[in-house]
Every structure is written in C-alpha cells, then in structure tokens.
Write a structure and sequence with these properties.
Largest sheet: 6 strands, mixed
Strand content: 15-25%
Distance between the termini: 71 Å
Amino acid sequence: MAEEFNTESMLSVFLYESDQLLEKLEGIILEKQDADCFDDSDINDIFRVMHTIKGSSGVMMYENITKASHKLEDIFYYLRESHPEDVPHMELVEKVLAVSDFITSELDKIKNGETPDGDESKLVEDLDEFLSRIKGEIKKQGIRLPKENKQVEPNQFYIMPVAEENSHFYRIVIHYKNDTQMSNIRAYSATYALKGVAEDLLYTPEDILSNEASADTILVEGFHMYLQTKASKEEVLKLIDSSEAESIDFDEITAAEYGQDLVHLGRPDVPIVINLDDNAQPAKETKAAPMPGDYVVKTKEAGKGKTLAKNQPKQQSIISVNVEKMDSLMDLIGELVIAEAVVLQNPDLKVPGLELTNFQKASAQLSKITTELQEVIMSMRMMPLSNTFQKMRRIVFDVSRKLGKDIELEVVGENTEVDKNIIEHISDPLMHLVRNSVDHGIEENAEQRTAAGKPAKGKITLEAKNEGGKVYISVRDDGKGLDKEKLYQKALDNGLIENKPISEFQDKEIYRFITLPGFSTKEVVTEYSGRGVGMDVVVKNIQDIGGRLDITSELGHGSEMTLVIPLTLAIINGIIVRVGDSPFVIETASIKQFVRLGEDALIQEPNGEEYVVLRGDCFPFIRLNEKYELPNSQTSIDDGIVVVLEHEGRQVCVLIDSLLQEQEIVVKPIPPYVKKVKGISGCTQLGDGSIALILDIGGLILDEERR
C-alpha cells in the first residue's frame, strides 16, 4: 500500500543523488564560466541533471524544488532544441548558480529535519523572463520554436498510444546488479526519464512506488518496459541511468508485437492506431529477446561495435554506507588496537621461565591482521579533496565578480585523499584563505597589475599533495604580497606585539601577525574582510586537528599560505615517555631528537625562565614535573633526558625522566568534566590499563611564549 511505503530510505537516496547531481552541475558551470557559451554536451548534461532533480523532487512532493528545476530545465530544453545564438552566457551562468543555491538551501533544510519552505516564485519569475528573451531571439533568427516542455504529473503519466509513420516500438528489460539498493526507485527513475520522449509507456511491475517488495521482483525478473516513441534507440539509451544495471535487453518490435505485449500486460482494451501513408514502411522486425543462457549484448554508443557481456571486465560494486556506521567501526578498531596492547603487554607474560614461542607467533599474526584491518578502514574513510576544491571555485567566482576583479583559479592535486573528518575541519579555514587571497592578495584592478608587469588577469593556485604522513594544501596568489613594514606597524599600533625593533623578528614571525585576533590591514570593512576576524579562526581550527599554517610572501609578487594537516585524527604514531609516575605521549612527527645534557647547558633568566644552549642555538626549556606538579620525578637535567620538539618551525626542549616505548596511539578526547589543561590535547589507554596524556606541542610552545 502507498501509505505503508517506507519513505525514509527513499529520502536518503533522494538527498544523496541530488547532492551528487548539484556537484556535477556546479562543476560544469564553473569549468565553462569563462567560455563564450555552453557546448551541446554541456547543455545536454545540465538538462538531464535538472530533469532528474525535477522528477525525483516531484516524487518526494517538494513542490518548490520541482518548480525551480523545471523552469531551468525549460531554458536548457530550448537551448538544446533551437540552438540560438548570442545567448548572454554569464547571465545564464548566474541563473544556473542561483537555482543551484536555492535547491541546496532547501536540501539543507530537509537534512536538518526542517520543512523546505523557500519561496521559489521570484526565482521562477526571473528564469521565465530570461526564457522569454531567448524565445524572442529565436524568433528574430527565424528558427522554429520547439514544442513546449510540459510537466506531466506522475499519476497522469499514461498516454493513449497513437502511432505515426515515424513511431518506434521498443521492448526494454533492465537487469540490475544483485546488490542494487532500492531497485524499484531506480526503475521509476528510468520511467520518469523516458517521459519526455514517450508517446506511450507501460511497465511491469506496475506498483514500483506503492509496493516496496517490487524491488525484489525486479532483481529476480528484471524491470520490463514497453515504449512507443519517435526517439531512436541511442537517444532512449542515453536517457536511462545504467550505473546500477548489469545489462539492458533492448529490442525494436513491430506495432503488432507491441499490441500483443499490451495484451500480456493485461491491457487488451488499449487500441493501437497506426497512421501510415502508402509509402510508409512498417517497423523492422528484430530477433526475439535472448533466452536464458544466451549471450546478452551490451548496448553501445552509435558508431561503436557491440561487445558480448561475457567478455566484459567485472564492474566495481559500490555501496553507500552511513557515516555514523563508519565512525562506529573506526572506534571499534581503536578499541581493538588497545586490546591488542593489553594482551601483548600483560604483566603475566613477564614471569621468568615461561615458554612463549607459540604465543609470540600467534601475537605476531594478530598484530599483522590488526594493522591490515586498520589500514583498510582508514582507506575506506579517505575521500578526495575534489568536492572541497570545487566549492573554492564557486567562492572565487562569486567574490571576484562582486569585487570587480578578473581572477582565474588553478587547481592542482584535487584527487589527494584525506580522512573525512579532516575534510570537515578544513573547509572553513580553506574558504577564509581563498577569500583572503581574492580580497587582500590580488590587486584592486587590472591597471595596477599591468603597471607592475603582470598579466591583467589575477591567478590563484590551489594545490594539495601528500608527503610523509601529512597533507599540504597551499593557496598561492600572484598579487601584491605582504608588506613586512606595514604588518609590523599595524600589530604594534594595535598592541598585539611587544615594543621591540622589527629587526628582532624573523620574516615568518612577522607574516604570522595576520593570524592574531583583531588584526586586519584592510582599510575599508567589506562583506569579505576588514573586521579583524578570519585568519585567527583559520589557525584555531587547524590547531584543533593537530595541523599548522605556514605563510611565505614576496612583496610585489604574491603570497603562499599552506595548511599542513595530518592524514587522520584517530590513530597516531607516538613515543611514550615517563615523568615521575605519569606516562605521556609525544607524537613521533614532532620529535627532532633526544639528547643528554649537563647543567652547564642551562641558562636562567632573572624572571625564572630557562633556556638550553644546543650546538650554538638557544631554545626555551620546560620542566614537565614543575609545569604539572608531578612528584617522584627527576629535578636535575643531568639525570633526565632532554627532548627537542618542533611545531610550525618553532622549537622547545622538554625534560623527561625516561623513554618507555613507541607504539600506535588511539587518540581519545579529554572528557568534558575534566578542566582543560594547557599543553594537553587528548589521552589514550596503554597496554597495562593506565591512562597516558598526549602532549600538545603547539600549545606548550604558545603557553611558553606568553609567559
């Protein structure tokens, strides 16, 4: 029954596929934003995207989305059918992006459990006015207007068949893959896609929307469609989504055979009217559908040969998994790593005289499996940065147009993969960096650039790469660059730095002034900058995930800002050290070296600050036992070990009692009921059941600098 149909999973499919289609739409638009017009392929792709969104939103009864997408579909229907010249390309780009933004905002409401109640009337009115202008241009050029692209509601889908001399009759059977989810909804999408070209269309099972069990029938028997149309076989196949199809049986049949099929479907009352003149030839008969065991011929594009399905390479099977399930699985892997450490470091194994040869073999196999399992789940969570980078294309397009700047965005390494949680954390910081480059970096107008010997068009390069377990994402512009004198004076005037000569600051320290809260070099407050916020948010968000921001610049030639972030947040390689009775974890990537030093290497300031002289360089010195008031620890540098740590190019020396071991560390957050401690970023459980705190190197250095 329709009221018993489970729409929850149907809604998930609708949201997922709509998001994918909108990403594809924006990709097409932004790629061709600087072109003179859209080519035929682009127009067809955009038409199909809007046609699909219109159909699926209609099924879900989101009327405002249906109306907006239908009106944009109308525009591209006329472009496809009439090929008018002198269509205002940039205005069309803006219209498409306006529809994309509207649908995206409505989808966000649905995801948040709200009602998609946005008013589409003004948007539809603007699109209608644009379409009227296009139609007027078509008439001026003497081109025949195509027939109206009418919207037909799903419950009024059936059309009484009246065949004409150029009508074709097709028998189509779609065989979906055995693991296809909601095959009944995909079958309905196929019927809806064909609605625009159908003179008559019947299908079985008929209850694909009202009966969820029809999905099982379709997987076993296939989805059968009987189509009367003027479209060619190739045109019909292009409209059918074959991404989940194992094979498609496609036969052109005669009008008589078509009538017989309707009888078999239980529709003997449907008349077949064939309008043929004396010279018209009946539709060519083809072979009967293949029997079980026969080769199934895969449909191919026109002009290409056909390939037997038996010789086709095995297609990759892909399923969608809820992110929460992936997170739960990742948590379980973390618990498994901890449990493995508990087993392998069990104190009972240290009893003298135990024969552990077999145990060690078994434990080695367990460690191998655990490591492989961890690598698999990590790879499953990895996602390319392409979607995030595409959003940056949109930001550059919008901001540059509003600021009146001509800027191109070059993207390098967009297929670099990062953990999904990392991607969620870097989207906002990356947006701030890109906006900063557009607004602050690129010169105000083309005249300033040409006077400096540069191309009139500004350029921003967005690049990502993987190196040594870290991901480097750079935003580089060829604009004005950073003026060290101006940065220094602004920070000094705002009281953000201590009053000392600029010569005592390194270049990278001066560039880092722009990340201080309340710092801005923008003279005029705009929508995008000048409020003294933004870059400090970038640094905070990046530090929250254990990353850093590197800034380099050359006055008059541009700037480069690089996010250096870990591949994942869940599991890190760490060194376990001991201070007194307390174990601590230091991330391996932060450790420069371990050294033994004597008291003669220490320098004490009158205010109590200590420094270590190492190979002629002077570094701040931190005694963890004093900082965290830990008893039973070494107080003399002669008896302890000095660890040289580095973060964002700054180094600090830390005194510990001893080294325990190196191992993979499952990062756990500090419980909310525990007061936040400076210099501590998380905790983990060790093999003996004890809790070790994870040192936040960036926090330690920052706290030391503020003393």
